[in-house]
Amino acid sequence: MGSGASNPHRFTFQNAEKAFKAAALIQRWFRRCMARLEMRRHCTWSIFQSIEYAGQQDQVKLHDFFSYLVDHFTPSSHNERDLLNRMFTEERSPQDPEMENCSDYESVQVPDSYTGPHLSFPLLREHAIALVEAFRLRQRLHARYVLNLLHEARKHLIQLPNINHVSTCYSEEITVCGDLHGQLDDLILIFYKNGLPSPERAYVFNGDFVDRGKDSVDVLMVLFAFMLVYPKEFHLNRGNHEDHAVNLRYGFTKEVMQKYKIHGKKILKILQDVFCWLPLATLVDEKVLILHGGVSDMTDLELLAKLDRHKIVSTLRYKTRKENKKQAEEKRKANQTGSAGSPSPWFLPQSRSLPSSPLRPSAHSAHRAGRSSSVPCSVPLDPKELSRRVRRSVDLELERCRQQAGVPVISEEEEPEPSASEADSDAQGRPEPSQEEWRQVVDILWSDPMAQEGCRANTVRGGGCYFGPNVTEALLQKYNLQLLIRSHECKPEGYEFCHGRKVLTIFSASNYYEVGSNRGAYVKLGPALIPHIVQFQANKATHTLTTRQRISRVEESALTALRAKLFAHSSDLLAEFKKHDQDNTGLIAPSDWAAAVESVLRLGLPWRLLRPQLVNSLPDDKLEYKSWLGTLAQKQPSHQNIQSSLLEVLYRNRSNLETIFRIIDSDHSGFISLDEFRQTWKLFSCHMKADVTDDCVCDLARSIDFNRDGRIDINEFLEAFRLVGQSCSKADGSACPGATSTNSGDCGRSGAHQ
Amino acid sequence: MADDRDREEIAVAEFHKKIKEAFEVFDHESNNTVDVREIGTIIRSLGCCPSEGDLHDLIAEIEEEEPTGYIRYEKFLPVMTEVLLERRYRPIPEDVLLRAFEVLDPAKRGFLTKEELIKYMTEEGEPFSQEEMEEMLSAAIDPESNSVHYKDYITMMVIDEN
User: Fold this and answer.
1) Mean pLDDT of all residues in B118-130
2) Looking at per-residue confidence, does A76 or A532 come out higher?
3) Is the separation of the CB atoms in A350 and A318 below 8 Å?
4) What's the pLDDT band for A402 if we cut at 50, 70, 90?
């Protein structure tokens, strides 16, 4: 004691002992505080991951719904038939020759009033740098330049092999980045920290450049720009989000249409093609394999190198083009689905066309696997079983709905025969990929590593597999490799090694779930190929916060999302609580509360640990559940006109509803007709067994049609009910009004307004 | 008597559920094991406030005979249930905590300087690691006076807990 401080006291032996004990006590208390903080951090992460998982299951439900419609639904009216056609028939993609002579961009005029960046080709380094700077200043690139850039990008990508071979002889170092998901701030931060691309500084971006974040267009343009400037040193791999079908659900399509109202459709069309031309993997010095998802025990690099990657338009579907009725008939007969009449839906999951996976089905409780990113195909089920299951649960419902609605039965009109030219051009279309080729690509874009040995179907994502350390080992040995670098999953530290450090997950979208939720990272490889990780986090605000504050902030976001989910199931929760309260006391014990909540929500969360944050009563006290549900409702946006059960259904199914609306809005106008809205809703709510009256829906529809023109603006509809997690960014860059709560939507993630 | 036994059974059943929940948060491979380094966090988040010494003793009880670095659930559950039943390692009441700070501040100034805090926390009791010290300083230090007004600090931390 008695350091340089001006404290004249001398401690007697007794005092020394007292001080020792006091210090010990304070330390003991502090360590407990830290432990509890740590637990809260883990719980928060679990919440985000489980909500994301639940969102993926939504996609499965959606496929169930569409499968049902395809198999069993007989349109009983003109309108219903039209609606189904809109849902199930993809627009024809233009032929390749049409793409080549692309007067697409040449016809687009850039007005004098345009103040954004100008591009000229061939692109030079200065252009790319200026582009980054322009985006940083929130400028927008004119559609003409976007189209031009995409056109040039496509020309370059076509020449590349499926597996890019890269050597560290030329560039001294290679930097590998993971998912960016439209987060421009992270890309800029990477270039700032690590340096801009150059002949000495090679980059590999490992897929998932778009979706979820708000600057997907910007990110993509920057990446393509640098790719054109440094074609030998700047490499891109395809991710599962470089896929127009996935973009429909996860925000990229919407972003393009919002930013490019006139030319958005054109841009989306060419993008669809450009995505297919992205290479599938990169191999560094023949030793380090870089691909987006993972591998399976069937992964065959030779096959992957040889296949025509352009044939794989989307990993969410097997078919590549709209088939005319005849082709569809033939295919269906071959597949034995036994359905009649309507064309085959283009977005139906692989399971309808492929035999079930040779991999063992998962017995493992999927929701604790903690999967993070996006959308799967449906669970691989035998199509007949699927039909049977769906039929059983919905057939009667639909009949009942129809009778209630008094829908008259109109005899089906014959579908007009497709014109001869249509039939011809389809026949000239690309050949289909083989099942095996398709499966190989799905595996490398969707798979996730797992700790256990073996290889089994990835039931959470619905495609690809979970691969164990032995699978990795076998692959590395077979191809004489030393490391597998992949992305696809969000990690708290931005990276994670597994399988004895033979697999490295690298994820470059920091603050992915919420500001402060996770770091981003990139990895550098020198000639010795030793991975050197660099972490970062975009957002200065978090640096000034203490750990406690940072965790609290992220936690609050997660809890808000969780409360929204609880609210969305209010009726079911009430019913479940009542089961535990036979004496009708209005109270429920904590243990029963936890059991009830889990049985309704099925999120696999540690409810007892979370309870203090969700419930405002003492830990051992019984809860007045009705008033608790009431407080949940209060925290949600209020809509007096809307029946509360309708609101619940909306909340529960928002991401599927959005997806359906966007599918129906086939010309991407952002509008669907009132009639279509009502019909869709009717079909959907019957299938989902939603207890909603027709009148309610009509009222809802009319209340959304703000300008009374018989059309509904999809975005306005979704935003009116805060059904979108991420804010829309209006054309002028202003944020959505009133969106202060952060709902982690199933189709987006929670994002606080910056 | 029968009632007491029932009550204990119910209590034990509830403890088991709580313990399982907390354990599973760290069971990353879903094979009923957790890294031994996470055990402290798990035990503390179940409401206990053991010292480092207490923790070492507990771990010795639940570790394998040949320590593997992992703790199995089967061994953890019974030991942790006992701990909860016996209400061992109770949390520290606010006033006791305050008195502890006051012991270190015999002049009753109402604060400790940064240097004093560092010295006590890193040299006395069960010393902090550098990381722990930095963590405490980041939240406790009032940047203007470069000291810890411990009464306010305690209040702030306690509010946050609830």
Assistant:
1) 94
2) A532
3) yes
4) very low
Whether pLDDT at A301 is above 60: yes
Q: Which residue of B has its CA nearest to A2?
A: B116
Q: Given the DSSP bridges, would you call strands A201-205 and B33-35 parallel, antiparallel or unpaired?
A: unpaired
- Examine the residue annotation and report whether A241 is marked as an active-site residue of this protein: yes
| Cβ pair A295, A443 in contact under 8 A | yes
Q: Find the closest chain B residue to A46 by CA distance.
A: B25
- CA A676 to CA A655: how far, in whole Å? 18
Tokens of B138: 């980041």
pLDDT in tens, A334-356: 443 333 333 334 444 333 222 22
Q: Is A20 on the interface with B (CB under 8 A)?
A: yes
DSSP B29-56: TSSSEEEGGGHHHHHHHTT----HHHHH
Tokens 């590549």 found at: A320
Nearest to A35 among B40, B113, B116 (CB): B40
- State which residue of chain A sits closest to B139, comparing Cα positions: A546
CA A521 to chain centre: 20
Q: Do B24 and A368 touch (CB under 8 A)?
A: yes
pLDDT in tens, A574-584: 999 999 999 99
Place of tokens 């993509």: A220
- Whether the CB of A626 is below 8 Å from some CB of chain B: the reply is no
3-state secondary structure of A517: coil
Task: Give Rg (Cα) of chain A.
Answer: 27
Amino acid A380: pLDDT: 33
For residues A483 and A289, the answer to whether their CB atoms sit within 8 Å is yes
Question: Distance between CA A733 and CA A711 in Å, rounded?
Answer: 25
Which position among A142, A235, A241, A687 bears the catalytic label? Answer: A241
CB A294 within 8 A of CB A467: yes
Hey, is the C-beta of B161 within 8 angstroms of any chain A C-beta? yes
The single residue listed with the structure tokens 């939603």 is A690
Instruction: Check CB contact of A607 with chain B, cutoff 8 Å.
Output: yes
Q: List pLDDT tens digits, range A133-150.
A: 999 999 999 999 999 999
